[in-house]
Amino acid sequence: MKSRKKIDIKTKNLSVIKFAGDSGDGIQLIGSQFANATAISGNDLSTLPDYPAEIRAPSGSLGGVSGFQIAFGDDSVTTPGNKPDVLVVMNPAALAVNLKNLDKGSIIIVNSDAFTEDAIKKAGYEKNPIEDGALSNYRVLAVPANSMVEITLKDSKLTKSQILKTKNFFMLGVMYWMYDLPIENTVKWIENKFKKTPELIEANKKVLYAGYNYAENTEVFDAKFKIEKGKLSSGKYKNITGNEAAAYALIAASKKLGRKLFYGSYPITPASEILQTLSKYRAKDIVVFQAEDEIAAICSAIGASFAGCMSATGTSGPGFSLKSEALGLAVITELPLVIVDVQRGGPSTGLPTKTEQSDLFQSLFGRHGDCPLAVLAARSPADCFDTVYEASRIAVKYMTPVVVLTSSYLANGSEPFKIPKQSELRNFEMTKLPEPDKFQPYIRDAQTLSRPWAYAGLKGYEHRIGGLEKSGETGNISYDPDNHQRMTELRRNKILNIANEIPPTFVNGNKSGDLLILTWGSTYGAVNSAVEIVRKNGIAISSAHLKYLNPLPTDLGEILKRFKKVLIAEENDGQFSFIIKSRYLIETISLNKVKGQPLNSDEIVQFINDNAR
Amino acid sequence: MANKLIAKDFSSNLPVKWCPGCGNFGILTIIQRTMANLNLPHEKYAVISGIGCSSRFPYYVNTYGFHSIHGRAPAIATGIKLSNPELLVWVITGDGDGLSIGGNHMIHAIRRNIGLKIVLFNNRIYALTKGQTSPTTLFGSKTKTAPIGSIDYPFNPANFAVSLGCGFVARGFDNDLNFSSEIMLESARHDGTSFVEIMQKCVVFTDKEFDQYKNSETKEDFTVKIENGKPMIFGKNKNKAVVIKDLKTEIIEFDPAKAPSDLTIYDSSNLNMAFLVSSLVSPLPYGIFYKAEKKSYEDLYYEQAGDNNKFENIEDIFQNLELYEIK
What we know:
The complex is a heterodimer of chains A (about 625) and B (about 325).
Chain A: E1 8-12, E2 14-22, H1 27-40, E3 44-50, E4 65-73, E5 86-89, H2 92-98, E6 107-111, H3 117-122, E7 139-143, H4 145-152, H5 160-165, H6 167-178, H7 184-193, H8 198-217, E8 223-227, E9 235-241, H9 242-257, E10 261-265, H10 272-279, E11 286-290, H11 294-306, E12 310-315, H12 317-333, E13 337-343, H13 360-365, E14 374-377, H14 383-398, E15 401-407, H15 408-412, E16 414-418, E17 464-466, H16 481-497, E18 507-508, E19 513-520, H17 524-536, E20 542-546, E21 548-550, H18 556-561, E22 563-570, H19 575-584, E23 589-592, H20 601-611
Helix pairs in contact in A: 1-6, 4-6, 4-8, 6-8, 7-8, 9-10, 9-14, 11-12, 17-20
Chain B: H1 24-38, E1 45-49, E2 64-67, H2 73-83, E3 88-94, H3 95-101, H4 103-112, E4 116-122, H5 157-163, E5 168-173, H6 177-189, E6 194-199, H7 211-214, H8 219-222, E7 223-226, E8 232-234, E9 240-245, E10 248-253, H9 271-278, E11 284-291, H10 297-305, H11 314-317, E12 324-326
Parallel strand pairs in B: 1-2, 1-3, 3-4, 4-6, 5-6, 7-11
Antiparallel strand pairs in B: 5-11, 8-9, 9-10
């Protein structure tokens, strides 16, 4: 018997791992399994799935590489990290795509069996990079995963292609060993997933353990990493994606409000998971409707809102465009409605699976007429819950559509989410419904300017609403010129009133000084990391992050005045800069990234060093 | 509610802004009368419309009403009906609103068999925008956008609905208050989507076109009344009939004293017959073309939903998920 090998255990505070392979290799699956294992171990984490638009892009091609990056650590983790410490690649194309984003000395774990002559050529290499010294700056651990699963399953009745398909679990087993993570959760997942085909349960479990044991017993694996439990507050958690969080927030809002939920939506990447998640919860009081198109999706939700439901729709950029006519109707009729826009690269079909923040203008201005509505943006996957919940609350209180901007990055990325308690969630408020004899559909609360929500079916409150301009209280059609002026101003002021309840803007760092970095939405994590790094380098920098984009917080103008320079970092061609410049008449410095990938902290640090000091 | 409701009880008392002589007045009466006959309380009705002359309708009925945007009424109404199936939801639309800009919503509402009572006012013209070709404008008709004559092949709305397998399809005339009210009442009582096309003259643009169907001199020869279990006899002298031979419709003439014994008897449960007969243009058939029992979308939805996932509170939502605890 072989003597036990010596294993070096290194404790780390943070680790970044990237899994990459062909889009059919099951990368997203092992990535999310690994993420769940780190979560269960008590780490904070952040993930970034990155996959091609095609379901099965040409096999072995550079364009077909699917990736899943995760950062996990013993302290707060707000981004999926910049460069991986460990890169796991299932084929040469995945290596070619990811190598440029790797620091020297990083670990690369390769499925060496996938480095066939043909696959190497497809990836653009002339010779096998594992063997020709191209990777000499890295620590390469070659794992013959195909052969290993074939040996492991040599007695199995599965076909050869079924056997080879399990290789992702082999690699996952290797990684569980390397990071000393619990394997049981994935075993449970396999048992549940394949419960109708026991052979597959058997095979995948065997392969998972085989990978683990392979790493345990092979000399080349001589180091393990240990990341201590994080500092998350005690409670029940789920590792949640932004789309799941948005879906749960809508259910939570309807429960707290005590009304049915209606979600009308049409499939669109990357928002479909909201519709799919809610579809699992279809019930008498959770009505989920897959509409025939984007227009019908929002219109059905407007109808349900008229009928008294907590109503919402979800989409991405092109679908949002199709909804804009109906948004005008929701604004003029003053019906509550939540629209979740999971932003992706545009215009048109653009980069459908990649992230961007380029629907800001569309959400603020993309409608006919003077058509104000509230716009909020989420800053992290778990924050999609809070933001969608808050949007629901504002929609009902102010009887208005509210747009929530998330992004592909937040929608597919995940992080630990602490399960909320109903009692902790903020209460819904509504304009009081008067007695039927005193009722008019558009009488208003003097303070909020909002109207009561008398919904179809309520006895004694029968009334008619519509898209024609109406007189302010009776709701009767009015073409009176002065009335239209008054109503336009009223709709504007009603939205501006929301600013009265926006909490004071938090300025991280000095409250005045040379440089403020102002951001919104999904750049939050990267900017926070960058600010820490820049401060360590001795530069004074403050940061502020906005959730409320319309109306803007009332204190923002004052804050901006206290800084000599304002830097705005965003994943579009300068949309928020445009808003801030025109609204506050100040100059801004813009860091704009439109590569379909989230801004990362290295890029922000670099930009600050080059441009903003 | 001791007294039985009458049509007037459903008037909103707002000034009606259609042109004098417009066929819409008749349809308003037909629907108000139907509402009274159904004898449901006012709050149980929701009348949803799109854009066009017809779509002003909800303002004139004192129930819940929503005058929405062009073509979208079926989609908005779907949200209302699906979220509250207890409401009787009418969709008031026109040939342009329902079959052109809103065509997609129309076909999908019918496909799902959601319980909407769709009433399509067919005046064969865009009247509110003052005289452009509509999807039911007759081939060759001159309009402001077809000054030499329309080269668009028109839709036949009733035939369109039959071809989609709509569970209730009928056609009536705006001036035929009694028969159209009968059709409307049956439509309202039907479970699932019902589609009623009402031929509606536009006094400004298509007045003459409808004369043949309405003048007592000509109407018997230019229309044929369809009734379940009866032959399709028409003509001022009751000397003609629509019959089906070799899967085609034919018009035969006969001596009314010796009507043939083998005339085709109309069967409103026969979709194929409904398709053949509703495709006729002259004589223009009216009545109930098709009627079939088919479970509605809302019934299927709530049956499927059952009592599953009954959450008392927010914590319950998460109870079946893979959670982990941090201590």
